[in-house]
Design a protein that fits this description.
mainly alpha
Length: 176
């Protein structure tokens, strides 16, 4: 579905905003998935940290040959981590492309679901408004009918002279 341009291109507001129903993957789940996909990167980072820690302790102890060895280990660990990152990016490239496509489809589905819910809400509001207008029309019609009946009675009384006029006529007839 193509989005309209101009002021209608914004997302539709809804009382369903903030609904966490569509949320799929938490940060911990994503971290777990990434660790499973590329376990060599955290291993390389841990080895780099271990080598750096070893080098700093060796320097404090005054063991320069061991510090030199640990700095070389740090270099190898960093190289291992970079190689693991590059190899992982080549190995999982297709999977990432598919994941991006899946994510885009899910976003589109979420937007469509949100629009559908908003349309349902608008239809419900429209039905309520139509029902209210029908009730108002019935009440107004009933009041108009009652007013017509009241006016007809008043006109009839005016033609007949009304109760006061009838009383005056009876009194006049009684006097004659």
């Amino acid at each position: 579905m193509e989005r309209p341009s101009g002021p209608l291109s914004k997302e539709l507001p809804s009382s369903f905003d903030g609904n966490r129903e569509f949320y799929e993957e938490s940060r911990l789940q994503k971290l777990g998935r990434r660790l499973k996909e590329e376990p060599l990167i955290p291993i390389g980072c841990a080895a780099t940290c271990w080598a750096l820690y070893g080098a700093s302790t060796s320097i404090r102890r005054g063991e320069s040959w061991k510090a030199q060895q640990m700095f070389r280990m740090r270099l190898y660990a960093q190289a291992f981590t970079i190689v693991a990152m590059v190899a992982g990016s080549f190995y999982y490239n297709k999977d990432r492309i598919l994941r991006k496509e899946y994510h885009a489809l899910m976003q589109e589905k979420k937007a469509q679901d949100k629009r559908d819910l908003w349309i349902k809400e608008l239809e419900a509001r429209d039905r309520e408004e139509k029902d209210w207008r029908e009730k108002l029309a019935k009440v107004t019609e009933k009041r108009e009918e009652e007013a017509k009946i009241r006016r007809a009675k008043e006109e009839e009384l005016m033609r007949e002279g009304g109760p006061l006029t009838k009383a005056v006529k009876k009194i006049r007839e009684g006097i004659k």
